[in-house]
Amino acid sequence: MKSAGASTEAAVLTRPGARLEVQTLGLPPLRAGQVLVDVAFSGVCGSQLLEARGLRGEDRYVPHTLGHEGSGTVRGVGPGVTKVAAGDRVVLTWIAGEGANVPSARYEGPGGAVNSGAISTFMRAAVVSENRVVRVPAETPLREAALLGCAVPTGAGAVLNTGRAAPGDSVAVFGVGGVGLAAVLGARLVHADPIIAVDIAAAKLEQARRAGATHAVNAGALDAVEAVRGLSGGAGVDLAIEAAGLARTMEAAFASVRERGGLCVIAGNVPHGGRITLDPFDLIRGRRIVGTWGGDTRPDHDIPTYARLFLSGRLDLGALPITVYPLESVNDALDDLESGRVGRALLDMALSQDARPGPPTAEEVR
Q1: Considering the chain, what is the average pLDDT of its residues?
Q2: Is 363 exposed, middle or buried (0-12, 13-18, 19+ CB in 10 A)?
Q3: Is the pTM value of this prediction over 0.85?
Protein backbone atom coordinates (compact mmCIF):
# COMPACT_ATOMS: atom_id res chain seq x y z
CA MET A 1 0.00 0.00 0.00
CA LYS A 2 1.32 3.44 -0.87
CA SER A 3 0.66 6.63 1.06
CA ALA A 4 2.16 9.12 -1.39
CA GLY A 5 0.97 12.64 -0.68
CA ALA A 6 -0.68 11.70 2.61
CA SER A 7 0.32 13.43 5.83
CA THR A 8 -0.22 13.35 9.57
CA GLU A 9 0.26 15.65 12.52
CA ALA A 10 2.68 14.44 15.17
CA ALA A 11 4.42 15.64 18.33
CA VAL A 12 8.15 15.67 17.58
CA LEU A 13 11.12 15.82 19.96
CA THR A 14 13.72 17.99 18.22
CA ARG A 15 16.36 17.75 20.95
CA PRO A 16 16.51 16.20 24.44
CA GLY A 17 14.76 18.38 27.00
CA ALA A 18 13.03 20.58 24.42
CA ARG A 19 9.29 21.16 24.31
CA LEU A 20 7.62 18.88 21.80
CA GLU A 21 6.63 20.48 18.50
CA VAL A 22 3.46 19.49 16.68
CA GLN A 23 4.50 19.19 13.04
CA THR A 24 2.90 18.03 9.81
CA LEU A 25 4.76 14.98 8.55
CA GLY A 26 4.55 13.16 5.25
CA LEU A 27 3.50 9.53 5.60
CA PRO A 28 5.95 7.11 3.97
CA PRO A 29 4.82 4.23 1.76
CA LEU A 30 4.20 1.12 3.82
CA ARG A 31 6.99 -1.43 3.75
CA ALA A 32 6.57 -5.16 4.26
CA GLY A 33 5.38 -5.85 7.80
CA GLN A 34 4.07 -2.34 8.50
CA VAL A 35 0.57 -1.19 9.41
CA LEU A 36 -0.99 2.26 9.02
CA VAL A 37 -3.23 3.09 11.98
CA ASP A 38 -5.56 6.04 12.51
CA VAL A 39 -4.79 6.74 16.15
CA ALA A 40 -7.76 7.54 18.37
CA PHE A 41 -6.09 7.83 21.79
CA SER A 42 -2.50 7.79 22.96
CA GLY A 43 -1.33 7.23 26.49
CA VAL A 44 1.24 9.57 28.05
CA CYS A 45 3.37 7.71 30.58
CA GLY A 46 6.42 8.12 32.77
CA SER A 47 8.93 6.58 30.39
CA GLN A 48 7.85 8.99 27.65
CA LEU A 49 8.25 11.84 30.12
CA LEU A 50 11.81 10.74 30.90
CA GLU A 51 12.61 10.54 27.19
CA ALA A 52 11.18 13.98 26.46
CA ARG A 53 13.11 15.48 29.37
CA GLY A 54 16.37 13.93 28.19
CA LEU A 55 16.65 11.66 31.23
CA ARG A 56 17.12 8.33 29.47
CA GLY A 57 20.71 8.79 28.40
CA GLU A 58 22.09 9.66 24.98
CA ASP A 59 19.45 10.16 22.29
CA ARG A 60 20.95 9.48 18.85
CA TYR A 61 17.66 9.62 16.95
CA VAL A 62 16.42 13.20 17.28
CA PRO A 63 14.35 14.53 15.72
CA HIS A 64 11.90 11.73 16.41
CA THR A 65 8.30 10.99 17.28
CA LEU A 66 7.14 9.71 20.67
CA GLY A 67 4.41 7.58 22.25
CA HIS A 68 4.28 3.84 22.80
CA GLU A 69 0.71 2.99 23.82
CA GLY A 70 -2.59 3.78 22.23
CA SER A 71 -5.62 2.64 20.32
CA GLY A 72 -7.05 3.15 16.88
CA THR A 73 -8.34 1.67 13.66
CA VAL A 74 -6.28 0.08 10.92
CA ARG A 75 -6.33 2.12 7.71
CA GLY A 76 -4.12 -0.14 5.65
CA VAL A 77 -1.42 -2.81 5.74
CA GLY A 78 1.86 -3.37 3.96
CA PRO A 79 2.96 -6.47 2.05
CA GLY A 80 2.93 -9.69 4.03
CA VAL A 81 0.81 -8.44 6.94
CA THR A 82 -1.76 -11.07 7.96
CA LYS A 83 -2.34 -10.27 11.63
CA VAL A 84 -4.73 -7.35 11.07
CA ALA A 85 -6.73 -5.85 8.21
CA ALA A 86 -8.22 -2.50 7.31
CA GLY A 87 -11.07 -1.61 9.66
CA ASP A 88 -9.81 -3.64 12.62
CA ARG A 89 -9.92 -2.00 16.05
CA VAL A 90 -6.46 -2.34 17.60
CA VAL A 91 -4.35 -1.61 20.64
CA LEU A 92 -0.90 -0.18 19.97
CA THR A 93 1.77 -1.41 22.37
CA TRP A 94 5.52 -1.14 22.76
CA ILE A 95 5.60 -4.76 23.93
CA ALA A 96 6.58 -6.90 20.96
CA GLY A 97 4.15 -9.64 20.05
CA GLU A 98 3.50 -11.83 17.02
CA GLY A 99 4.10 -10.69 13.47
CA ALA A 100 6.86 -8.99 11.52
CA ASN A 101 9.32 -6.84 13.46
CA VAL A 102 10.08 -3.64 11.53
CA PRO A 103 12.20 -1.60 13.95
CA SER A 104 11.90 1.82 12.38
CA ALA A 105 9.94 4.18 10.16
CA ARG A 106 10.91 7.57 8.78
CA TYR A 107 8.61 10.50 8.04
CA GLU A 108 9.29 13.65 6.04
CA GLY A 109 9.13 16.74 8.24
CA PRO A 110 9.35 20.45 7.46
CA GLY A 111 13.08 20.41 8.19
CA GLY A 112 13.95 17.00 6.80
CA ALA A 113 13.62 13.39 7.94
CA VAL A 114 11.94 12.60 11.28
CA ASN A 115 12.75 9.25 12.83
CA SER A 116 10.32 6.86 14.44
CA GLY A 117 10.66 3.47 16.06
CA ALA A 118 8.57 0.36 15.60
CA ILE A 119 5.72 2.27 17.24
CA SER A 120 4.76 5.90 17.83
CA THR A 121 1.41 7.16 19.07
CA PHE A 122 1.74 10.92 19.70
CA MET A 123 0.31 11.39 16.20
CA ARG A 124 -2.97 11.24 14.33
CA ALA A 125 -1.88 8.49 11.94
CA ALA A 126 1.08 6.22 12.57
CA VAL A 127 3.10 3.65 10.65
CA VAL A 128 3.59 0.81 13.12
CA SER A 129 5.34 -2.56 13.01
CA GLU A 130 2.96 -5.53 12.71
CA ASN A 131 4.19 -6.99 16.00
CA ARG A 132 3.16 -3.84 17.89
CA VAL A 133 -0.56 -4.02 17.03
CA VAL A 134 -3.11 -6.30 18.69
CA ARG A 135 -6.69 -6.69 17.49
CA VAL A 136 -9.35 -6.38 20.19
CA PRO A 137 -13.12 -6.99 20.08
CA ALA A 138 -14.90 -4.42 17.93
CA GLU A 139 -17.07 -3.33 20.85
CA THR A 140 -14.06 -2.31 22.99
CA PRO A 141 -14.20 1.47 23.59
CA LEU A 142 -11.08 3.05 22.12
CA ARG A 143 -10.57 5.32 25.12
CA GLU A 144 -10.23 2.38 27.51
CA ALA A 145 -8.44 0.30 24.88
CA ALA A 146 -5.54 2.78 24.96
CA LEU A 147 -4.84 1.76 28.56
CA LEU A 148 -4.21 -1.80 27.38
CA GLY A 149 -1.06 -0.79 25.51
CA CYS A 150 1.16 -0.17 28.55
CA ALA A 151 -0.46 0.74 31.87
CA VAL A 152 -2.63 -2.34 32.29
CA PRO A 153 -0.29 -5.00 30.85
CA THR A 154 2.66 -3.61 32.82
CA GLY A 155 0.85 -3.12 36.14
CA ALA A 156 -1.55 -6.05 36.11
CA GLY A 157 1.07 -8.21 34.40
CA ALA A 158 3.59 -7.49 37.17
CA VAL A 159 1.09 -9.06 39.58
CA LEU A 160 -0.32 -11.85 37.43
CA ASN A 161 2.65 -12.90 35.27
CA THR A 162 5.83 -11.79 37.02
CA GLY A 163 4.60 -12.06 40.61
CA ARG A 164 2.23 -14.99 39.98
CA ALA A 165 0.01 -13.77 42.80
CA ALA A 166 -2.53 -16.28 44.14
CA PRO A 167 -5.76 -15.88 46.11
CA GLY A 168 -5.03 -14.75 49.65
CA ASP A 169 -1.51 -13.46 48.90
CA SER A 170 -0.62 -10.17 50.54
CA VAL A 171 0.30 -7.51 47.99
CA ALA A 172 1.68 -3.98 48.39
CA VAL A 173 1.83 -1.51 45.51
CA PHE A 174 4.29 1.37 45.90
CA GLY A 175 3.21 4.27 43.69
CA VAL A 176 -0.39 4.26 42.50
CA GLY A 177 -0.32 6.23 39.28
CA GLY A 178 -1.54 4.53 36.11
CA VAL A 179 0.70 1.46 36.31
CA GLY A 180 0.31 1.14 40.07
CA LEU A 181 -3.49 1.33 39.90
CA ALA A 182 -3.42 -1.35 37.22
CA ALA A 183 -1.38 -3.49 39.63
CA VAL A 184 -4.09 -2.97 42.24
CA LEU A 185 -6.68 -4.12 39.68
CA GLY A 186 -4.56 -7.19 38.95
CA ALA A 187 -4.32 -8.03 42.66
CA ARG A 188 -8.08 -7.62 42.93
CA LEU A 189 -8.62 -9.99 39.99
CA VAL A 190 -6.87 -12.83 41.84
CA HIS A 191 -8.50 -12.00 45.20
CA ALA A 192 -5.26 -11.04 46.94
CA ASP A 193 -5.68 -9.97 50.57
CA PRO A 194 -4.63 -7.57 51.87
CA ILE A 195 -3.97 -5.19 48.97
CA ILE A 196 -1.96 -2.27 50.32
CA ALA A 197 -1.55 0.94 48.32
CA VAL A 198 1.42 3.18 49.17
CA ASP A 199 1.82 6.75 47.92
CA ILE A 200 2.37 10.30 49.17
CA ALA A 201 -0.74 11.74 47.49
CA ALA A 202 -4.01 11.37 49.38
CA ALA A 203 -6.06 11.65 46.17
CA LYS A 204 -4.16 8.78 44.57
CA LEU A 205 -4.64 6.64 47.66
CA GLU A 206 -8.36 7.27 47.53
CA GLN A 207 -8.38 6.24 43.87
CA ALA A 208 -6.51 3.08 44.83
CA ARG A 209 -9.21 2.23 47.38
CA ARG A 210 -11.82 2.60 44.65
CA ALA A 211 -9.73 0.29 42.46
CA GLY A 212 -9.75 -2.40 45.14
CA ALA A 213 -7.00 -1.63 47.66
CA THR A 214 -8.01 -2.80 51.14
CA HIS A 215 -5.56 -0.45 52.89
CA ALA A 216 -3.83 2.83 52.06
CA VAL A 217 -0.50 4.02 53.47
CA ASN A 218 0.54 7.65 53.10
CA ALA A 219 4.34 7.41 52.86
CA GLY A 220 4.59 11.14 53.48
CA ALA A 221 3.18 10.72 56.97
CA LEU A 222 4.21 7.18 57.99
CA ASP A 223 7.18 4.84 57.73
CA ALA A 224 5.89 2.90 54.73
CA VAL A 225 7.92 -0.24 55.38
CA GLU A 226 6.80 -0.53 58.99
CA ALA A 227 3.19 0.23 58.02
CA VAL A 228 3.15 -2.43 55.29
CA ARG A 229 4.71 -5.01 57.60
CA GLY A 230 2.17 -4.17 60.28
CA LEU A 231 -0.74 -4.62 57.86
CA SER A 232 0.62 -8.00 56.74
CA GLY A 233 0.99 -9.61 60.16
CA GLY A 234 4.43 -8.23 60.93
CA ALA A 235 6.45 -10.39 58.57
CA GLY A 236 6.05 -8.44 55.36
CA VAL A 237 4.04 -9.02 52.20
CA ASP A 238 4.24 -11.91 49.78
CA LEU A 239 4.53 -9.53 46.83
CA ALA A 240 5.48 -5.86 46.45
CA ILE A 241 5.17 -3.95 43.17
CA GLU A 242 7.22 -0.78 42.71
CA ALA A 243 5.60 1.55 40.18
CA ALA A 244 6.77 4.99 41.29
CA GLY A 245 10.12 4.94 39.49
CA LEU A 246 12.10 6.26 42.46
CA ALA A 247 15.22 4.66 43.91
CA ARG A 248 14.09 5.17 47.52
CA THR A 249 10.71 3.63 46.73
CA MET A 250 12.35 0.59 45.15
CA GLU A 251 14.43 0.12 48.29
CA ALA A 252 11.35 0.46 50.49
CA ALA A 253 9.35 -1.99 48.40
CA PHE A 254 12.13 -4.56 48.67
CA ALA A 255 12.38 -4.06 52.43
CA SER A 256 8.63 -4.61 52.80
CA VAL A 257 8.54 -8.19 51.49
CA ARG A 258 8.76 -11.15 53.82
CA GLU A 259 11.83 -13.30 54.32
CA ARG A 260 11.96 -16.80 52.79
CA GLY A 261 10.11 -16.16 49.59
CA GLY A 262 8.81 -12.60 49.49
CA LEU A 263 9.16 -11.04 46.02
CA CYS A 264 9.66 -7.41 45.00
CA VAL A 265 8.91 -6.61 41.34
CA ILE A 266 10.34 -3.40 39.91
CA ALA A 267 8.04 -1.88 37.27
CA GLY A 268 9.05 1.79 37.54
CA ASN A 269 11.83 3.55 35.62
CA VAL A 270 14.42 5.77 37.27
CA PRO A 271 16.31 8.41 35.26
CA HIS A 272 19.42 7.22 33.44
CA GLY A 273 22.26 6.55 35.87
CA GLY A 274 20.02 5.98 38.90
CA ARG A 275 21.07 3.29 41.38
CA ILE A 276 19.56 1.47 44.35
CA THR A 277 21.29 0.08 47.44
CA LEU A 278 20.39 -3.27 49.01
CA ASP A 279 21.75 -5.26 51.94
CA PRO A 280 22.99 -8.57 50.46
CA PHE A 281 22.03 -10.35 53.67
CA ASP A 282 18.38 -9.65 52.84
CA LEU A 283 18.88 -11.83 49.77
CA ILE A 284 20.41 -14.57 51.88
CA ARG A 285 17.36 -14.37 54.15
CA GLY A 286 15.18 -15.11 51.15
CA ARG A 287 13.89 -11.75 50.02
CA ARG A 288 13.83 -11.66 46.22
CA ILE A 289 13.86 -8.79 43.72
CA VAL A 290 13.29 -8.87 39.95
CA GLY A 291 12.45 -6.47 37.17
CA THR A 292 9.63 -6.91 34.71
CA TRP A 293 9.61 -6.16 30.98
CA GLY A 294 6.10 -4.88 30.43
CA GLY A 295 4.62 -7.20 33.04
CA ASP A 296 6.04 -10.21 31.16
CA THR A 297 3.06 -9.72 28.89
CA ARG A 298 2.22 -11.94 25.93
CA PRO A 299 0.44 -9.20 23.97
CA ASP A 300 -1.57 -11.33 21.57
CA HIS A 301 -2.95 -13.42 24.43
CA ASP A 302 -3.04 -11.03 27.39
CA ILE A 303 -4.33 -7.82 25.79
CA PRO A 304 -7.48 -9.40 24.26
CA THR A 305 -8.00 -11.15 27.61
CA TYR A 306 -7.90 -7.82 29.43
CA ALA A 307 -10.33 -6.39 26.88
CA ARG A 308 -12.77 -9.24 27.46
CA LEU A 309 -12.43 -8.91 31.23
CA PHE A 310 -13.24 -5.21 30.90
CA LEU A 311 -16.25 -5.86 28.67
CA SER A 312 -17.54 -8.46 31.14
CA GLY A 313 -17.20 -6.06 34.08
CA ARG A 314 -14.45 -8.01 35.87
CA LEU A 315 -11.66 -5.50 35.10
CA ASP A 316 -12.73 -2.03 36.21
CA LEU A 317 -10.77 0.25 33.91
CA GLY A 318 -13.09 3.03 35.06
CA ALA A 319 -11.10 3.01 38.30
CA LEU A 320 -8.11 4.47 36.44
CA PRO A 321 -8.37 8.29 36.53
CA ILE A 322 -8.08 9.63 33.00
CA THR A 323 -7.56 13.22 31.88
CA VAL A 324 -7.74 13.85 28.15
CA TYR A 325 -5.85 16.43 26.10
CA PRO A 326 -5.79 17.39 22.43
CA LEU A 327 -2.60 16.55 20.55
CA GLU A 328 -1.66 20.24 20.55
CA SER A 329 -1.58 20.17 24.37
CA VAL A 330 0.90 17.30 24.59
CA ASN A 331 3.35 19.49 26.56
CA ASP A 332 0.60 20.30 29.08
CA ALA A 333 -0.01 16.57 29.47
CA LEU A 334 3.68 15.95 30.15
CA ASP A 335 3.85 18.84 32.62
CA ASP A 336 0.76 17.66 34.49
CA LEU A 337 2.07 14.10 34.63
CA GLU A 338 5.41 15.32 35.96
CA SER A 339 3.75 17.39 38.68
CA GLY A 340 1.44 14.56 39.75
CA ARG A 341 -1.65 16.55 38.81
CA VAL A 342 -3.07 13.69 36.74
CA GLY A 343 -3.11 9.94 37.13
CA ARG A 344 -3.22 8.86 33.50
CA ALA A 345 -3.08 11.32 30.62
CA LEU A 346 -4.51 10.47 27.22
CA LEU A 347 -4.16 12.40 23.99
CA ASP A 348 -7.55 12.38 22.24
CA MET A 349 -6.99 12.91 18.54
CA ALA A 350 -10.62 13.97 18.06
CA LEU A 351 -10.32 16.95 20.40
CA SER A 352 -9.92 20.37 18.86
CA GLN A 353 -6.76 22.36 19.49
CA ASP A 354 -8.81 24.84 21.56
CA ALA A 355 -9.70 22.16 24.13
CA ARG A 356 -7.72 22.52 27.32
CA PRO A 357 -8.24 20.25 30.33
CA GLY A 358 -9.43 21.84 33.53
CA PRO A 359 -9.42 20.03 36.86
CA PRO A 360 -10.30 16.34 36.43
CA THR A 361 -14.04 15.78 36.46
CA ALA A 362 -15.78 13.32 38.77
CA GLU A 363 -16.12 10.97 35.79
CA GLU A 364 -12.39 11.20 35.03
CA VAL A 365 -11.49 10.55 38.66
CA ARG A 366 -13.80 7.54 38.75
Answers
A1: 94
A2: exposed
A3: yes
The answer to whether residue 282 sits within a structural domain is yes
- Residue pLDDT, tens place only, 96-128: 999 999 999 999 999 999 999 999 999 999 999
Number of domains in the chain: 2
Q: Are residues 86 and 129 in the same domain?
A: yes
User: What is the SS3 assignment for 346?
Assistant: strand
- Domain ranges, residue 241: 155-295
* CATH code for the domain in which residue 264 is found: 3.40.50.720
In a domain, 306, yes or no: no
pLDDT in tens, 18-65: 999 999 999 999 999 999 999 999 999 988 999 999 998 899 999 999
Burial 241-262 (b: 16+ CB within 10 A, else e): bbbbbbbebbbbbbbbbbeeeb
Determine, yes or no, domain membership for 226.
Answer: yes
Residue 221 half-sphere exposure, CB side, CA atoms within 13 Å? 6
Residue 330 pairs in a beta bridge with none
Beta strands in the chain (DSSP E): 7-13, 21-26, 34-44, 64-65, 69-77, 89-93, 105-109, 112-116, 125-129, 133-135, 171-174, 195-199, 215-218, 239-242, 263-266, 288-291, 322-325, 344-348
User: Which residue type does 211 have?
Assistant: A
**Is the same domain home to 229 and 270?**
yes
Same domain, 117 and 234: no
CA 15 to chain centre: 23
Asked if residue 236 belongs to a domain, the reply is: yes
| DSSP-based three-state secondary structure for 251 | helix
